[in-house]
Amino acid sequence: FLPMALSHGSGAEVQRPLATVVIGGLIFATFLTLFVLPVLYIIFEKGILLKLKRKTTVVTFIFLLCFFSFQNVNAQQPITLQSAIDTALRNNLTVKNEKLNAEYQKRLKAAAVDIPQTSLFGEYGQFNSFYKDTKFGISQGISFPTVYTKQKLLQNETYKSSVLNITVKEAELKRQVSDIFYLLVYMQQKQKLLLQNDSVYSSFLTKANLRFSKGESNILETTTAETQRSQISTQLKQLKNDLEVLQIQFQQLLNTTIVVTPTTENSKMNFIGTIDTSAISNHPQIKVLRQQKNISMANTQLEKSKLLPNLNVGYSNQSIQGNGNDNKFYASSFRFQSIQFGVGVPLFFGSQKAKINSSKTLELITENKYQIVLQTLKAEYETVYKQYLTQLQIVSGYENISLKGADVITKAANEQFASGNINYLEWTMLINNATAIRSNYTDAVKDLNHYIIQLNFLTSK
Length: 461
Description:
By secondary structure, this protein is an alpha+beta fold. The chain has helices at about 1-5, 10-45, 50-75, 80-90, 95-110, 145-215, 220-255, 285-305, 350-420, 425-460, and strands at about 75-80, 120-125, 135-140, 260, 310-320, 320-325, 330, 335-345.
């Protein structure tokens, strides 16, 4: 198995993983048999007679061994697109923060009826005669009840808007996760193509060195093979760096420390639907803007209700010592009571009128913004849908014609080169042409997936 694990010839991309797994299994099984099983036998055979120190050391060793084994096994975890989206919706901090904001607005609903502070007062002195009297009272001012109704309505509309903002963040998060997911799939496909190409040129280099050593070829053939492998190696290094960067972004969206790798049965997404701009009206952004219109209308009604008079009610209790009009003497223990009612009439309402007019202007602003975004999303949907149809034709052309042609070119080039009917330069050009076709097909699928993701986002799918 060692030659298989170290080989770079034809079929090495299949042989190397198989050989690596088998060799690793042999090494681990040997270690398990020679060390782990005897240690376990000692522990269970001697039981409590084993010294505590030694037992603790052995148990700790086994625990660490198992821990690092599981760590290596779970170093990378495959994940499907739906699982990635579910994880992101559950863990992403942006969505969590938006949910907390909705909870904050929900709790503010209880503060919509904001009654002013109650006034308490007391007096002591000569109110009516030489005698010193006392007086205390309480008063409460409130807005007209309609004001509290409108405040509650406004806060309720604000809460609805915060709930809709959650759906906006979730829709945007789904699009971001889907984009990065299929970008990772695209880079995996690119890496696979480069590894296959590296295997081809590795075999070519081996044959070129053999031909050169026997004097059947010149140095150009060997140099060409080495140059091609060097270019592929550079591309693989760059691709590895891009994969690591994209992997960090993917983990950030999912808010996880686990290294997850995308897994899918098909690298090409499917989109089922026809052009239907009416679906845009259900987009989360449109719903939020529609709710903003409701908020501005509720705010206008609130400002209008503040033109209504304020109400005030009070109660006072006091003593009035001395002779009254009925020729009776009233001591300090006798208390006189009164109730007050008042109405605050807004005589100077210019400022409030200005607030009402500004709120009406805000209604017009939110309406225009709603129409602008609606038209923009509809135009974007029509544009992306046309791009999708064009890209779908390109991908279908590759699948029906170009990819089959690339296979034929590769097979024929290898056979012709092996039989000596073509030279190494012609073989290199043919192989590079076939590789370019496969690489371009991968690029076309990547663009197609991007358009489908955008269409799903615009139609809230």
